[in-house]
Amino acid sequence: MNADQLTTIRRQFPVTKRMLYLDSAHQTPMPTSVREALEEFIAEGHQMAGPKPVWLRRVEQARARVAAFLNATSSEIAFTKNTSEGLNIAANAVPLQAGDNVVLIEGDHPNNAYAWLNMKRKGIEVRFAKLRDGEIANAQTFAPYIDERTKVVTLSHVSFHAGQVHDLASIGKLCKERGVYLVVDAMQSVGVIPIDVKALGVSVLAAGTHKGLLVPQGLGILYVADGLDELQPAYLAMSSMARPPSDYIARPDDLDVRKDAGRFEFGNVNLPDLHALSASLEMIEDVGVAAIQQHVTALGDCLIEHLDRLGVRLVGPRDRGQRNHIYVLGLPVETWATYFARNDVRVSPERGGIRVSFALFNSADDVDRFAEIVRNGLKEGSLAKFANMD
Ligand SMILES: Cc1ncc(COP(=O)(O)O)c(C=O)c1O
């Protein structure tokens, strides 16, 4: 991303004038184009209630865009409410039988863990692969836990609490060899890391859209690979059916569901957010996800240099390729969170310290300003005393 591009993007994010926003792994602020798309949708709803067929045509355009974004086809994309809903759909769709097992990473996002832990009611064993904080998961992480009763391996693409980018390619290859479904939580990677579901061997991918995709909460995307017909929905609505009755009378003897991912879409979808998504995808595609990844990783390089100079520990990985836009600083939350809030810096408290996360609108100047604020904090006796505690 060049300087002119960054200036144009920053103009789209008024938040950059109000505070130092380093919290996009929590929630990205809305760009102006997304706000305008929402306002246009509201005006259409307010003045003429649609018309709905126009809105639904736009939903299909958004679906095609999301599909292209993941190197999937439109038939493999369903719209959901959020990541959790997508992961729960997956957990209930995989044909699991008592005695089967599922492998997760210990300490991975609870919204994924609970979806599978809920399967314990059906006699499914949930195995947790161990990972040191900040370590990258790869095929070797999972291999010792997989046996002939393993049906699913599931993990976040990017960890929310130390920022490591797990090696999905090697995990996907292992899953393929062992005949295991790979279910991915892409909440922290979609929009900031290029994702090719085919190349990575992903069976199901779920994500919300309120982080890297720049849309307000309430819309999720779900990829289900074509051909996994044995994955069946736990819920049904008219929208899931192969032959929805044109007279709106449900036929008990015709319960075939659609073959495409639409079988996992239940009733009306989040139309305002889908309009917002079209606008945000236009902006993201304009810059390019690879360029966004390059940009946030370069900001990470700059941050790590500052941290080294300041003597502040980085909790997650240092190597490029293992990290992306999330960086956790070994500064204790109790004292530093209020210090950052006092200085108009938006960051998140995390397990290992203070989480800083970048998005396309952040600049090297933001990182320098942040480092200056940390430097000043370290001069305050009460904060310095607590710096770098494990
Ligand atoms: C890895 C990961 N998964 C899921 C979520 C959120 O789940 P949902 O979209 O269901 O709110 C988050 C953070 O909000 C996350 O970091």
TrEMBL record:
Keywords: Aminotransferase, Pyridoxal phosphate, Transferase. Residues 21-370 form the Aminotransferase class V domain. The lineage of its organism: Bacteria, Pseudomonadati, Pseudomonadota, Betaproteobacteria, Burkholderiales. Transmembrane segments: none annotated. GO terms for molecular function: transaminase activity. InterPro entries: Aminotrans_V_dom, PyrdxlP-dep_Trfase, PyrdxlP-dep_Trfase_major, PyrdxlP-dep_Trfase_small. The keyword Transferase applies. It comes from the Bacteria. This is Aminotransferase class V-fold PLP-dependent enzyme.
